[in-house]
Write a structure and sequence with these properties.
Number of helices: 19
Shape: elongated
Structural class: alpha+beta
Helix content: 25-40%
Strand order of the largest sheet: 7-6-5-8-3-2-9-10
Bound molecules: adenosine-5'-triphosphate, magnesium ion
Distance between the termini: 99 Å
Strand content: 15-25%
Length: 592
């Protein structure tokens, strides 16, 4: 039995508590080691944490922090099973405010690897170096008194060949580690996180002051640009974060991040409530996307229900479900409790890319039309028609012929098609037209690239540059020539022929989201469709751009030629149609 006295912070737990702490497989893969070490560094009050790995963590995982460190006595205790400084009694299990509490992680890691610990507290005159191999504490020597802790894990699973066999490629293991680091980073914006693999820096998130700024470091800009801030609270629980505006939802599920008391977890209750909150706001085939921080009174949530703490249990599920569902619903409908639309949305609507060149039938952009809303010319003939019988007898426009009538709110085009009244959303309809053309050209292998004359260097994070480079060749086949231009910059050299103006910076953000998905989508066709859909969306005329009657006619005709499909590639509606029969019924003329 280990002796403890008041000078040490780590104590053995009473047996009954040990019994209550579920044992479990903590170390399933390198990312799980990183998760545990990061959580320890966070609990130690670190301001800056560096994670360095080699070969997806299999050769080396090293986590260095500037936290409170450990005394020599604590350093030995740390590798004892069920030894923790974070929990003292049974009652504490119900008010956990630290990431760790089981006193299990370090001994579990040390049981399946070689661990070297270097640590010192701020008051230590000499630091401690300790080697632990196969669970056995070995050499302890002096080390420089650098305040903080560094843990190096090598030879992971060397004695567990069965476990090692289950691991995936180093690239996949690295991706899992990146996820773990990103999740920790999202939850702790005030901590700096750096991550390198094989000496190459893949992530670097300097300290920021808000969750919003951290989200901007982690996710492509498009998420925040189309995200709605959420803030809702009640006694015992509060919900903050961002949810994607329903009109910008996509088939993508990235991100779907939930943190309960800063812990990254999955929760059926919460995902279900988010889904219900979106309800019918969500276009078909699209998913909610969110980064949500749910802070619950520690007494109302059990965090000790999963071996790697990936799940939690709420004492009152219905209360949490209601809170989340209501907050999401109210935010989407702009109702009570929803803060005003934030600046980014305002500026998005005001950015110049809402006015685009309209390609003529040759696919070449024509000059920009004037910005006034176009209505049918109210000439004297029309006024005359009001007061007297029209000279011409009533005629139905021949089937298929399009008569452009005008535009409403610079967004909806109104036309007569044969005997029908058709209202078309100019953006989604054009998006559909462009998508069908691009897709046809791709299947016929005739997709051509149009070089951009003066490509601007676009700044990205190193992992995003790497993501693009991994798919550079496939993207080239879609007319997207993207070249690296330094470690954190790329050039977009071409887009496919036939699109309107594409803002490279904004497009790239969406492309990155598609590429995130690519890594999970097995079929080439599905991958290609997602990127072509993004291209079509960016190349299509925006809502807010006024259109002349001849442009309206061309677009409605093109939309008809492409099959009058009633949704855009992202599932949003393109059109609405009323036949003469419908109109007659509506006005009580049916049966005349
Ligand atoms: N980076 C660190 N800085 C300071 N102290 C640390 C650090 N890592 C571990 N410790 C100390 O070692 C103890 C054991 O760590 P370990 O991760 O095994 O258990 P825990 O964090 O208490 O609980 P859990 O098993 O749930 O993670 C911790 O309670 C803490 O006191
Ligand atoms: Mg721990």
């Amino acid at each position: 039995m280990l002796k403890t006295d008041d000078s040490t912070k780590i104590r053995l737990l009473p047996e009954d508590v040990i019994g209550r702490i579920a044992a479990g497989e903590v170390v399933e893969r390198p990312a799980a080691v990183v998760k545990e070490l990061l959580e320890n560094s966070i609990d130690a009050g670190s301001r800056s944490i560096s994670i360095d790995v080699k070969d997806g963590g299999l050769s080396l995982i090293r986590v260095t922090d500037d936290g409170e460190g450990m005394s020599r006595q604590d350093a030995i205790c740390a590798f004892q099973r069920h030894a923790t400084s974070k929990l003292r009694s049974d009652a504490d299990l119900w008010s956990i405010r630290t990431m760790g509490f089981r006193g299990e992680a370090l001994p579990s890691i040390a049981a399946v690897s070689h661990v070297r610990l270097l640590t010192a507290t701020r008051s230590d005159e000499v630091g401690t170096k300790l080697d632990v191999a196969g669970g056995l504490v070995g050499n302890m020597t002096d080390a420089p008194p650098v305040a903080g802790t560094r843990i190096e894990v090598t030879a992971l699973f060397e004695q567990q060949p069965a476990r090692k066999k289950f691991l995936k490629s180093t690239a996949t293991e690295c991706t899992h580690i990146i996820r773990v680091v990103q999740q920790a980073a999202l939850a702790w914006p005030a901590i700096q996180f750096r991550f390198t693999q094989n000496a190459q820096e893949l992530l670097n998130y300097p300290t920021v002051r808000s969750e919003r700024e951290r989200i901007a470091q982690v996710y492509p800009r498009a998420f925040l640009d189309h995200g709605l801030p959420l803030h809702d609270g009640q006694t015992g629980a509060s919900l903050t974060g961002y949810i994607i505006d329903a009109v910008h939802a996509k088939p993508s599920r990235i991100p779907q991040e939930l943190f309960v008391n800063r812990r990254p977890v999955r929760s059926l209750t919460v995902s279900h409530a988010v889904g219900e909150g979106y309800g019918s706001f969500l276009p078909r085939g699209c998913h909610p996307r969110f980064v949500l921080f749910l802070d619950v009174d520690p007494e109302r949530v059990d965090v000790n229900v999963h071996p790697t703490k990936r799940e939690v249990r709420f004492s009152d599920n219905e209360f949490i479900h209601q809170l989340v569902r209501r907050a999401v619903r109210q935010r989407l409908s702009g109702g009570v409790g929803a803060p005003g639309r934030d600046d980014t949305e305002v500026s998005e609507r005001a950015t110049p890319h809402v006015a685009v060149s309209w390609p003529d039938s040759s696919g070449m952009p024509t000059s920009r039309p004037t910005e006034t809303t176009v209505l049918p010319q109210p000439g004297p003939e029309i006024q005359l028609a009001f007061v007297s019988e029209a000279a011409e007898p009533y005629v139905r426009v021949p089937a298929g012929e399009v008569v452009a009538l005008g535009q409403i709110s610079r967004t909806f085009l109104v036309a007569q098609v044969g005997g029908d009244l058709v209202v078309v959303d100019q953006h989604t309809a054009h998006e559909r037209v462009l998508f069908e053309r691009l897709y046809r050209a791709w299947t016929a292998r005739s997709l051509q690239a149009q070089p951009l004359l003066l490509p601007d260097p676009l700044d990205l994070s190193p992992d995003h540059v790497a993501l693009i480079l991994r798919h550079q060749e496939e993207l080239g086949k879609l007319g997207l020539e993207i070249e690296p231009f330094g470690a954190t910059t790329v050039l977009l050299r071409s887009t496919p022929v036939g699109l309107g103006h594409v803002d490279p910076k904004v497009f790239l953000e969406d492309l990155l989201e598609d590429l995130h998905q690519w890594e999970r989508v097995p079929t080439l066709e599905a991958r290609v469709r997602s990127v072509l859909a993004s291209l079509a969306c960016h190349g299509a005329v925006r809502a807010g751009r006024s259109m002349k009657l001849d442009e309206i006619k061309v677009l409605v005709e093109e939309w008809r030629t492409e099959g009058e499909i009633t949704t855009c590639p992202h599932g949003r509606r393109t059109s609405f149609r009323l036949s003469t029969d419908d109109l007659e019924k509506m006005f009580g003329r049916a049966g005349w």
